[in-house]
Specification:
heterodimer, A: seven-stranded mixed sheet, B: mainly beta, four-stranded antiparallel sheet, 11 strands, 0% helix, globular
Chain lengths: 107, 119
């Protein structure tokens, strides 16, 4: 199985900060990577697919990049609605796997 | 509106069987894959498996192979997740989600079904 490792596990930031979350795959996944946002008690929401494509309705402050084994999710200016947990997920081959999550907290 | 609506919360005992459901609406159910994701209390997301059509084999994570069965009834636009013998460790929230191809992210998620298994 391909292992996905996110860093950091927790991130404390303020409104307006630029925030970057890293996701590393244990082997190359090309660009078959998605990012999801999950708020407490809610289902995950797709933010970005195929590494850098913004899902419809997602604010442009979210962006993704990378290829192979290293990927990043960046929030250019953190907003109050962005405090949540973020997961990366590869879909290069079965089984698909998720990273362990990064919780973005208010500083 | 495109949506996946899951069945309600379940409270069961160890050893009992259970099937939860996920009904799609607002789109052509037969052209999408449906996957299942587990989230244990306070933990992250775990990909369990995925199915395309009723005549296709489901693909499972090794962690869940033999533990659950994924099926689909396209005539009623519904996918299922089945346990033949529950364990206390199956206590979790279960989400269904759809994707367009096997090389696609989950773009629509169900609201989740809570399963509580007492020993």
């Amino acid at each position: 199985d391909i292992q996905m490792t996110q860093s950091p596990s927790t991130l404390s930031a303020s409104v307006g900060d630029r925030v970057t979350i890293t996701c590393r795959a244990s082997q190359s996944i090309d660009t078959w990577l998605a990012w999801y946002q999950q708020k407490p008690g809610k289902a995950p929401k797709l933010l970005i697919y195929k590494t850098s494509n913004l899902q419809g309705g997602v604010p442009s402050r979210f962006s993704g990049r990378g290829s192979g084994t290293e990927f990043t999710l960046t929030i250019s200016s953190l907003q109050p609605d962005d405090f949540a947990t973020y997961y990366c997920q590869h879909y290069n081959s079965y089984p698909w796997t998720f990273g362990q999550g990064t919780k973005v907290e208010i500083k | 509106e495109v949506q996946l609506v899951q069945s309600g919360a379940e409270v069961k005992k160890s050893g009992e069987s259970l099937q939860i459901s996920c009904k799609g609406s607002g789109y052509n159910f037969t052209t999408y894959w449906i996957g299942w994701v587990r989230q244990m209390p306070g933990k992250g997301l775990e990909w369990m498996g995925i199915i395309y059509r009723a005549d296709s084999d489901a693909r499972y994570s090794p962690s869940f192979q033999g533990q659950v069965t994924i099926s689909v009834d396209t005539s009623i636009s519904t996918a299922y997740l089945h346990w033949s013998s529950l364990k206390a460790s199956d206590t979790a929230m279960y989400y269904c989600a759809r994707c367009y191809t096997y090389l696609d992210a989950f773009d629509i998620w169900g609201q989740g079904t809570t399963v509580i298994v007492s020993s």
